[in-house]
Amino acid sequence: xxxxxxxxxxxxxxxxxxxxxxxxxxxxxxxxxxxxxxxxxxxxxxxxxxxxxxxxxxxxxxxxxxxxxxxxxxxxxxxxxxxxxxxxxxxxxxxxxxxxxxxxxxxxxxxxxxxxxxxxxxxxxxxxxxxxxxxxxxxxxxxxxxxxxxxxxxxxxxxxxxxxxxxxxxxxxxxxxxxxxxxxxxxxxxxxxxxxxxxxxxxxxxxxxxxxxxxxxxxxxxxxxxxxxxxxxxxxxxxxxxxxxxxxxxxxxxxxxxxxxxxxxxxxxxxxxxxxxxxxxxxxxxxxxxxxxxxxxxxxxxxxxxxxxxxxxxxxxxxxxxxxxxxxxxxxxxxxxxxxxxxxxxxxxxxxxxxxxxxxxxxxxxxxxxxxxxxxxxxxxxxxxxxxxxxxxxxxxxxxxxxxxxxxxxxxxxxxxxxxxxxxxxxxxxxxxxxxxxxxxxxxxxxxxxxxxxxxxxxxxxxxxxxxxxxxxxxxxxxxxxxxxxxxxxxxxxxxxxxxxxxxx
Amino acid sequence: xxxxxxxxxxxxxxxxxxxxxxxxxxxxxxxxxxxxxxxxxxxxxxxxxxxxxxxxxxxxxxxxxxxxxxxxxxxxxxxxxxxxxxxxxxxxxxxxxxxxxxxxxxxxxxxxxxxxxxxxxxxxxx
Lengths: 505, 126
Fold this sequence. Notes:
Chain A has 505 residues and is α/β, with parallel strands linked by helices.
């Protein structure tokens, strides 16, 4: 999932650019200007990394042999790389946890909250950050939002400064946010004055050194998503090092959802907030008596999750706006019908249809946990774990104790190489529903892979007991059509093996 | 054919464990892979006698794995059974165009799976 760790050369030579550009033009009619080289490179590296290829030549061979892969690549090439509220859970974490924590610990002399969006492209990210800061109520707490967006593309920056976006850029933005923070103009939707006031743009190349002194230091948060995809490992290390130095103690670095800093730096503390992994520059012990969250990188005392906190002064924050349409605009029959269609498509393994149908459903009723979960599974089936993660988070926000959603989150962590987080979620799954046999089974496998045979056997026993107790349940949707009886036989065999290994056979 | 080597590919460890259960009980040796890229790598390195391939896989979907193997002289003779939850004819057609030797729709009965495996191994033996 993450960009590093693979030996893939992340540079795109101009010969390679021409090769891919010509192939794309020949097969799609789309001509990529030289200025798109970087965006093409990111798309290519993203796809090639997914296959574990060592070189873009290997990827070219696949691309030219496979129409399906060509379509996948074109999806990446043609979408707007950034959008408003891309991975909303990160902005939720910023609003409900990071801002209150930083402001709580801050001396009253400092009256601004500074955020840097590094690699901001056409400005969606810095504007989203500004909206989140305003939503966190920082102004009513007497602070000013100062957001800076930087990029290497002057064209992108020119567009960013206008703050005007076509309708499709706003597709993922909840309607109430559009109403509050955008105004319709002839050219498109324009970001409102208070948000534009908070955001400044400037040209900057992240790997050019030395960094301008104005950029060094005093940032409360830095967003630099996809940094591990953008650069080669040595450059990534340098860039991340600079970002670390530029943050205030206690400040946070936001990287892409699927990226990790493992192998790049160990200077940050990892903090999980509502399922989102954040990277904090260690701060000296706070003087205000505010307790800091436990970290999840080995220094915690068993508890590894921090629920999002409400802001320091909730009465001054704008009330959370409803995401459900008013009742008269809802059509329950259609929702039920769409849900049924989505369930069927999911059961038949048609993820694209699931996504289409759930999209329609969300237009009628966005607060439907089951639909978000179906969408999550569809995304996961398509290999898009970032979106799967975001959809699962939505399902859990609506229905926090839904065991299938917890289980799904565990699977996503597992497939994204985060076994510790997977264990935590599978534990929560069985806490919500002790009969969820698959969660016990996965726990067993995880413990066994760590050579903790005692805990592994215990988990397998729980799986067998759960299956004997309830031979069917919501978990059977994850069985791929196999009979639960076969799962029972499998669990028993695995338990026997585990006992033999542990010498209890 | 008692110890033919079968590469089973599915992204769910649970389903892999169940496939393994069925195949080992029938006397086959089983290799496993959890994504398309791993499947390709394992197929190329291990030259299994048969591949049981799920369609929905991370990194490289089953169709593509199959197509890449079937387009390669070295591997095209390894029988591939596609295992999928898809029911529509459309998918079936795509499945066959990839050069898969058989197409089994989930839920698949263990007996039916073993019959298909035995049939394909028999064909491959000539």
